[in-house]
Amino acid sequence: MLVAGIMKKDVITISPLATVREALAVMKEHGVRSLVVEKRHAGDAYGLIAYRDVARSVIAEDGDIDLLNVYDIAQKPALQVSQHLEIRYLARLMIQYAVKGVLVIDNNELQGFVSDTDVVGSLIDRALRDT
Fold first, then answer.
1. Residue 37 belongs to what H/E stretch?
2. What is the pLDDT of residue 63?
3. Dihedral sign (CA 18, 113, 100, 30)
4. How far is CA 4 from the centre of its chain?
5. How far apart are CA 14 and CA 23, in angstroms?
6. Mean pLDDT score, 61-77
7. Residue 91 CB partners (closer than 8 Å, separation 6+)
8. Rounded CA gap, 37 and 54, in Å?
9. What whole-number distance in Å separates Cα of residue 15 and Cα of residue 121?
10. How far apart are CA 120 and CA 112, in angstroms?
11. pLDDT at 107 > cutoff 70
């Protein structure tokens, strides 16, 4: 099975210039734990901001959620894969780089997002089909 079969296509994005407070509000509004950080220009890379980035920068390091911008704490560039990659290779990359979410990029454009929950869910579905 390919990444295209499990990726989420409706990805919530945020401007890199948004404050961390705004990012947290968007996360809460959409019920997600991470957001894709938009590119600032055509040659730029997508990023990712997750709860753990906020926890590290704001809670552990006493950062101010109104003074920090998303680009200050986001993972950039975020780990990216093609939608044509097999899920087993995606799982290996996620384990190797200890990430919980990966951007799906083709032709330098965002196609979707895959979380570790999506990968494990596909494994469960396959296991149940094989019984």
1. strand 34-37
2. 74
3. positive
4. 15
5. 7
6. 87
7. 119
8. 14
9. 30
10. 17
11. yes
- Give start and end residues of each alpha helix (H) in 1-131: 20-30, 51-54, 70-73, 87-96, 116-129
Residue 65 pLDDT > 90:
no
Return all residues near 98 (Cβ < 8 A) that are at least 6 apart: none
**In which residue are the tokens 């083709």 written?**
106
The whole-angstrom distance between residue 70's C-alpha and the CA centroid of its chain comes to 14
The β-bridge relationship of strands 101-106 and 80-81 is parallel
Q: Does the predicted model carry a pTM greater than 0.90?
A: no
Summary mean pLDDT of the chain: 91
Q: Is 66 left (phi over 0), alpha (psi -120 to 50) or beta?
A: alpha
What amino acid is encoded at 23 in this protein? A
Residues forming beta bridges with residue 89, ordered by sequence position: none
